[in-house]
Amino acid sequence: MELKNAVAVVTGANRGLGRHLAAQLVERGAKVYATARRPETVDLPGVVPLQLDVTDEESVRAAARTASDATLLVNNAGILTDTPLVAGGLDAVRLEMETNFFGPLAVTRAFAPSSRATAAAPCSTSCRSCPGCTRPASGPTPRRRPRPGP
After folding, report:
1. Predicted TM-score (pTM) of this structure
2. For the segment 65-96, what is each residue's pLDDT rounded down to a tens digit?
3. What is the spatial distance between Cα 112 and Cα 57, in angstroms, rounded to a whole number?
4. I need a labelling partner for 106 at 20 to 30 A (CA). Which of 55, 62, 84, 127 fits?
5. Count of Cβ atoms closer than 10 Å to residue 101 Cβ
6. Are 130 and 80 in contact (CB under 8 A)?
7. Closest CA to 34 of 65, 63, 68
8. Burial of 144 (0-12, 13-18, 19+ CB in 10 A)
9. Which CATH architecture has domain 7-126?
């Protein structure tokens, strides 16, 4: 993918993988909106810090308006509460779902119209890495076991 004229939005770009991805995009010539709940924590040279809380609808809409020239979206923001799904507190499970599922969905939906309006094909990716994941990020989707014969 040619990045020289790309305009990227990287969520959770203030640390970790998001920070690294934003830095790599800048190094390769892209304009980068580096988002964080607190944009003052974005310390990368060459990026445009942008406030974005993926769990707040108005924040998502405002970021999409500001970065309406985006051609590439990297949904990186996320949390890990280490809450067991069955035995853990439902509020913590809901927070994880809001942040890690509904948040990226809202961001993707908000940026899709601006991406369609650009000459470049829109691209969106989600980054997730969490301890305890049992299936690799890439590879075949597990299939159901065949039923035993008659």
Report:
1. 0.78
2. 999 999 999 999 999 999 998 999 999 999 99
3. 15
4. 84
5. 12
6. yes
7. 63
8. exposed
9. 3-Layer(aba) Sandwich (3.40)
